[in-house]
């Protein structure tokens, strides 16, 4: 009898163990089963090359090319690795993160070598770098466009010096033929007309590259993108319309950010909406614990473009369906497990991060739609290394301690004697960044980056602007300390600031018009726009005081050649 009971007990234990294993396997497979149940349009199958509205079901292509030896579904890892090698999140300070496991340097370098090898088949005597093919004017939203008038001004027609191979981030020219077969991809998604098909014979020209790749190829020593480059407007449209095929959390950082991959293999950094347009930063919040605002990222790109810095990667607003475009396509289990339905029947999630990632600070849709900003990735660090610099005027990020620059009025003299600020334009570029941050009210500029290939003679990339536009009722004068201490500015910057202070080129009206092109308009409320005009007058007053005290030639650095300077002077 005892033996029978013992055997029954052993069988019971074995059954419990098998049930537990089965449940564990089912939990792991649940996300994949949900995707399959949702239909072919939600997985990695070939679908419409541009996303529909989040509330609509995605439509399949009117035409599909015959597949040769490739099965429907998610591309293999090798394909993704080759194509994603050109992408990296714009807000990374120290390292590059990928949706796949980190690949070795040899794998990533091989991707770029393949492109260089294709260039050898072309005519090397007639190399042409991918630049502006035309000077398209911005389409006016309502008849008369102040932006078009601004961009016709001589200050916005200053040409960059002639480019050599050392001045371009990638030595890629229009002779290159990017062959999708090199990435083992039997079909290349068409970004434009759904009805149009790629000719299967021959190799596509540089014009058929996806817009994110054209953006990367166009980066040079002097600018992130050139003026009126039609690729930028096309890339902004892609950020809004391209189908999202994969989502993962960005590691590091204080607040939740998502890395989104599109059907054309481009990637972007998604910052979800945390505050309404009307909400200001609470007065008791420290600058380092403030929310990151999605609309600040969007507005920063447009402001940077109007100031003619062109140092912010393209950013666009998008309304995202949290179920179909995040939960159903993510492979990140940690992210997937944080989704829940709120008492108000809205879809919510919170992810993992240092601040505000809990059920109390969950991001909830209405019922499953959420706004967010999408910032195009910069090239992967394995292909285009970036150097991270500590901002000389970095804040202490401490509740009680102050930074050295806050207590030493002669701090700039020490900076001027320290490389790379002792020669070249780096100090003047920091002054540009200071003015840019003050106009936005951004106190969170602890580091900045440059492309390593160009050494110290290149521009500063204006990354991570989410803590701007927090307070329209307060002008934080401490942001302007670098300018008031150093009393240095480029002549081109000074002239543009003076131009934007005029009634016919009013900064707030130009930014407002530019922001009307974003899908999430209005991006900024009126008080924030008016605050920019007020802060612009403050900047000009600081520079005027510097000039009165130290003299014009000691404050304003002439970065214009004599012919350009004479033309600008005659048109003023």
UniProtKB/TrEMBL annotation:
UniProt domain FAM20 C-terminal: residue ranges: 339-556
Keywords: Disulfide bond, Glycoprotein, Golgi apparatus, Membrane, Transmembrane, Transmembrane helix
Polar residues: compositionally biased ranges: 43-62
Subcellular localization(s) per the UniProt record: Golgi apparatus
Transmembrane segment boundaries: 12-30
Region (Disordered): 38-74, 184-203
InterPro entries from the UniProt entry: FAM20, FAM20_C
Recorded family membership: Belongs to the FAM20 family.
PANTHER family: DENTIN MATRIX PROTEIN 4 PROTEIN FAM20, EXTRACELLULAR SERINE_THREONINE PROTEIN KINASE FAM20C
The protein's name in its UniProt record: Extracellular serine/threonine protein kinase FAM20C-like
């Amino acid at each position: 009898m005892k033996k029978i009971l013992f055997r029954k007990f052993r069988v019971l234990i074995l059954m419990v163990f098998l049930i537990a294993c089965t449940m564990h396997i089912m939990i792991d497979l649940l996300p994949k089963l949900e995707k399959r149940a949702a239909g072919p349009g939600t997985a990695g199958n070939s679908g419409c090359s541009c996303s529909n509205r989040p509330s609509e079901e995605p439509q399949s292509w009117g035409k599909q090319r015959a597949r040769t030896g490739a099965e429907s579904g998610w591309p293999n890892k090798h394909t993704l690795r080759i194509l994603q090698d050109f992408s990296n999140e714009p807000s990374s300070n120290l390292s590059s993160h990928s949706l796949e496991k980190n690949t070795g340097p040899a794998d990533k370098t091989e991707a770029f070598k393949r492109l260089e090898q294709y260039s050898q088949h072309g005519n090397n005597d007639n190399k042409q770098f991918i630049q502006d093919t035309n000077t398209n004017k911005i389409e006016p939203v309502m008849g008369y466009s102040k932006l078009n008038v601004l961009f016709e001004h001589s200050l916005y027609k200053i040409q960059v010096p002639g480019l050599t191979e050392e001045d371009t981030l990638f030595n890629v020219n229009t002779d290159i033929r990017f062959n999708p077969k090199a990435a083992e991809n039997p079909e290349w998604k068409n970004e434009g007309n759904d009805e149009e098909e790629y000719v299967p014979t021959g190799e596509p020209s540089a014009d058929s590259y996806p817009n994110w790749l054209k953006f990367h190829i166009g980066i040079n020593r002097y600018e992130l993108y050139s003026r009126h480059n039609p690729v930028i407007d096309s890339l902004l449209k892609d950020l809004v319309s391209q189908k999202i095929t994969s989502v993962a959390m960005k590691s590091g950082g204080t607040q939740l950010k998502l890395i989104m991959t599109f059907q054309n293999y481009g990637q972007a950094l998604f910052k979800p909406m945390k505050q309404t347009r009307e909400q200001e930063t609470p007065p008791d919040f420290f600058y380092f614990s403030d929310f990151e605002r999605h609309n600040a990222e969007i507005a920063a790109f447009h402001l940077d473009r109007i100031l003619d810095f062109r140092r912010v990667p393209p950013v666009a607003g998008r309304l995202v369906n949290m179920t179909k475009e995040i939960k159903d396509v993510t492979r990140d289990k940690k992210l997937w497990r944080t989704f829940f339905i709120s008492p108000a029947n809205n879809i919510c999630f919170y992810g993992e991060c240092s601040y505000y990632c809990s059920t109390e600070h969950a991001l909830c849709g209405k019922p499953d739609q959420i706004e967010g900003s999408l910032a195009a990735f910069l090239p992967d660090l394995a292909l285009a290394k970036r150097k991270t610099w500590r901002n000389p005027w970095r804040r202490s990020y401490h509740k009680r301690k102050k930074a050295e620059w806050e207590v030493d009025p002669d701090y700039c003299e020490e900076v001027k004697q320290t490389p790379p600020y002792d020669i070249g334009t780096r100090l003047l570029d920091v002054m540009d960044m200071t003015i840019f941050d003050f106009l936005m009210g951004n106190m969170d500029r602890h580091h900045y980056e440059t492309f390593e290939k160009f050494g110290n003679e290149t521009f500063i990339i204006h990354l991570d602007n989410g803590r701007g536009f927090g307070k329209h009722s307060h002008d934080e004068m401490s942001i302007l300390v670098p300018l008031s201490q150093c009393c240095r500015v480029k002549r081109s910057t000074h002239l543009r600031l003076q131009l934007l202070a005029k009634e016919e080129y009013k900064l707030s009206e130009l930014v407002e018009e530019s922001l009307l092109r974003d899908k999430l308009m209005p991006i900024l409320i009126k008080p924030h726009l008016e605050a920019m005009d007020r802060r612009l007058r403050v900047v000009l007053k600081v520079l005027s005081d510097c000039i009165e005290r130290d003299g014009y030639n000691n404050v304003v650095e002439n970065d214009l050649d004599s012919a350009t300077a004479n033309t600008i002077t005659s048109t003023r």
